[in-house]
Amino acid sequence: MTDHLERYRRFFLEENYLGSSKKSVFWRAVKDFDNLFSERFGSGNVASVWNNVAKIGLRDKKGMSESVRNLGHQFFPVFAREVEILAPDVIIFMTGPDRDRDILHHFPSAKIERAVERIPRRQLAVVGFLNSSVVSIRTYHPGYFSGFNLVRSEAKAVLKQKLATHFRAPLF
Questions:
Q1: Residue 140 has pLDDT above 80, yes or no
Q2: What range defines the domain where residue 149 resides?
Q3: Is residue 90 helix, strand or coil?
Q4: Non-local CB neighbours of 26 within 8 Å, separated by 6+ positions
Q5: What values do phi and psi take at 135, rounded to 5?
Q6: Comparing C-alpha atoms, which of 141, 135, 85 is closest to residue 110?
Q7: How many domains in the chain?
Q8: What is the pLDDT of residues 38-62, one digit of tens each?
């Protein structure tokens, strides 16, 4: 465990993961959203974190089997508690619609609804948390063909609008 923690520490604190991640579409998307938050609301004013909804998966493969998903739900249901502890202002689920049931497993009272009238809920959704001020959307993973790029600008517009209300800031 200590080796894993040290590897994470080096990656996130010493290797400038956002600066050296030009090849990773995921980290480029994270950086793009962080830049939006900094430019619009000031550097460091929007608390966002990166995290996995599913804590366990298949080694050297993408996705997970149903049995692995069930094990994670049953024995490692920590995601909701992590969100409670970290208290982010915004959560961007870059999971695609196939992980909606995982989101709802951790947040049973959440509502996943269409974010923009002309865009299908599958592509871009608002995730509403009852009794919470967290601004949240769900869209495709940046590596999912070009699905993410099709809705990136709309996702940013939704976040700007919702965060402006959250921070009581004028839209521009």
A1: yes
A2: 23-51+87-166
A3: strand
A4: 94, 141, 142, 143
A5: -90, 125
A6: 135
A7: 1
A8: 888 888 888 877 777 776 766 666 6
